[in-house]
Automatic annotation (TrEMBL):
Residues 204-252 form a coiled coil. This is ATP-binding cassette domain-containing protein. Residues 12-450 form the ABC transporter domain. GO terms for molecular function: ATP binding; ATP hydrolysis activity.
Length: 530
């Protein structure tokens, strides 16, 4: 049986992610600012080691989601939390922005909570009808606003949000953060200096220098590193002392009735959307993108070796004078099915499939944790597609990678994915483990997509569910459930109320007022879900 979601480790958590692209106004006199709502309110956990497939018709926002979560596009709203690195190790600046303002944020939270309660009361009092639907939208907005700020704050200080004196919490937490930040800077210096030393040693060895001579030449650099290590260890001791101070504060409030509730939000994830340019650069090697088009994504003026080494130098994995980089590149090329003698060739000398292998080698050389593969095989012949897919699956096992695999091809998605998310007009409308989704789709849109897969099996002839009409405009999407204009099950509620993204059975989420295939659910499964 598949592992339950809660047993798995989250690598990236996306909450209420929104990406709007501004549209140029047709005329100066147009008052309304228009946006393409490419992603709207997407919430999703991506688990370590999984391949998460993303399907949906062209223009539904798959590429935008992949790029926004990698922060290639600035996200308009929402939270994207990365768990591949501990927040204390990076100590990003946004943490101090929150911690410094704790007392005023505490007041703001109270205001937002009141607004949430008030809008809920208004909604509950109203009779069925249009006004009630509008009140529901308002309540949901207020709830989201409160929840986002609450998570931003409690992720850092947990249950301490209940403290009577938030300025005291702010003072101690800031002290810890500032010390962690100093430690982070020193750790970075040590790492970079060690890369330089390693490169120098290898060069001197190649020049035939004796061990003693090499030692003399790198002595001052090594001494510098030793000094920094001493400084670092002092800072680490200081952090331990501050942690004890924080524990004392936590003990003081531990018995507060709401402490536990808020403390559950405390974790070490990093909010990618709030990093500075420099901080984001440090994480960029962890989070990679493989494009659809293997032609335009490779610089035609660089050889394969140069293409792969660019990132290795930029991320200071190798020093520029380090001769061992060549061996490393050849090893990576071989892993990706490229012959070592290709290293001096240019992209135009390769076929599409080989070019895609070069793109993959360039990414995996950085030892990333997460890769978005955006239509990575769509431009290739079918026989080459399967080679590249198998290469990706192979690398995933070897390198402990996690993928988001974007494709409009449902057969490819079925083959490669552990779980699948179905997108429609900017929203994820259904998400489940692959087998579950393909055998028991609960959203009418998924049903329609699946029924359109060609089959050669005469015993399982399917009647395709025809999707009526075109995809509506993402600039002015339909009200309520965006799919209602094309859905054969749609009723009045669908036109007015956005359906919640609900977990129907463990791990199977659907946003629909008239879920289908519910008769295929065993009573025992529902019990587990509750
Ligand atoms: N840079 C941009 N500026 C303005 N609008 C954009 C931009 N990128 C995407 N869009 C719009 O956002 C919506 C979602 O596009 P996106 O490329 O994410 O969809 P997709 O599902 O990946 O489609 P496809 O499979 O065709 O690439 C579309 O309406 C698209 O026109």
């Amino acid at each position: 049986m598949a592992k339950l979601e809660k047993d798995k480790k989250v690598l990236i958590r996306i909450e209420n992610l929104k990406k709007y692209f501004p549209v140029k106004k047709p005329s100066l006199f147009d008052r309304e600012a228009l946006y393409v709502r490419a992603n709207e309110d997407v919430s999703l956990d991506i688990y370590e080691g999984e391949t998460l497939g993303l399907v949906g018709e062209s223009g539904c926002g798959k590429s935008t989601l992949g790029r926004t979560l990698l922060q290639i596009y600035d996200q308009t709203d929402g939270r994207t939390i990365y768990y591949g690195l501990d927040i204390d190790e990076l100590a990003p600046k946004y943490v101090s922005d929150i911690l410094k303002r704790l007392p005023s944020l505490g007041n703001k939270l109270k205001e937002l909570q009141k607004k949430e309660n008030d809008t809920l009361k208004t909604y509950e009092k109203l009779p069925e009808g249009k006004e009630k639907y509008q009140a529901l939208e308002k309540y949901r907005e207020a709830e989201k606003e409160y929840r986002t700020l609450l998570l931003d704050v409690t992720q850092l200080i947990g249950g301490l949000i209940v403290a009577d004196d938030l300025s005291e919490v702010s003072r101690v937490a800031m002290k810890e953060h500032e010390t962690s930040r100093e430690a982070f800077k020193i750790r970075k210096k040590i790492k970079e200096e060690n890369v330089l030393i390693e490169g120098k040693v290898l060069t001197l060895q190649e020049e035939g220098k004796k061990l003693e001579e090499i030692e003399t030449q790198i002595k001052s650099q090594k001494n510098k590193v030793q000094e920094w290590e001493k400084e670092l260890s002092k800072l680490e001791d200081k952090i331990k002392d501050i942690e004890k101070e924080i524990e004392v504060l936590r003990d003081k409030y531990r018995n507060h009735p709401e402490f536990e509730k808020y403390d559950k939000n405390r974790d070490k994830g990093i909010n990618l959307a709030r990093l500075t340019e420099n901080e984001a650069r440090l994480l960029r090697k962890d989070l990679q993108l493989i494009f659809q088009d293997p032609y335009s994504s490779l610089n035609p003026r660089l050889t394969v070796g140069q293409i792969i080494s660019e990132g290795l130098y930029a991320h200071k994995i190798f020093a520029k004078n380090d001769k061992s980089v060549q061996d490393y590149i050849i090893k990576t090329m071989e892993e990706c099915g490229l012959a070592p003698y290709f290293i001096h060739r240019y992209p135009h000398q390769f076929s599409g499939g080989q070019r895609q292998r070069i793109g993959i080698a360039r990414s995996v050389a950085l030892r990333p944790k997460f890769i978005v593969c955006d239509e990575a095989v769509s431009a290739l012949d079918v026989s080459i597609q399967s080679q590249i897919i198998n290469l990706l699956l192979d690398l995933k096992e070897k390198e402990d990678l996690t993928y988001m695999f974007i494709s409009h091809d449902l057969s490819v998605i079925k083959y490669i994915s552990d779980r699948v998310g179905v997108m429609y007009l900017g929203n994820i409308v259904e998400l489940a483990e692959t087998e579950e989704l393909y055998s028991r789709p609960m959203h009418p849109y998924t049903e329609a997509l699946l029924s359109a897969i060609p089959t050669t099996d005469p015993d399982h002839k399917k009647d395709p569910v025809i999707l009526e009409g075109d995809i509506p405009s993402p600039i002015r999407p339909p009200s309520g459930c965006k799919f209602h204009t094309r859905c054969k099950y749609a009723t009045e509620i669908c036109k007015n109320v956005l359906p919640e993204f609900e977990e129907v059975v463990p791990g199977h989420f659907v946003a629909c007022h008239h879920k289908i295939n519910l008769d295929k659910i065993e009573p025992a499964e529902v019990k587990i879900a509750k």
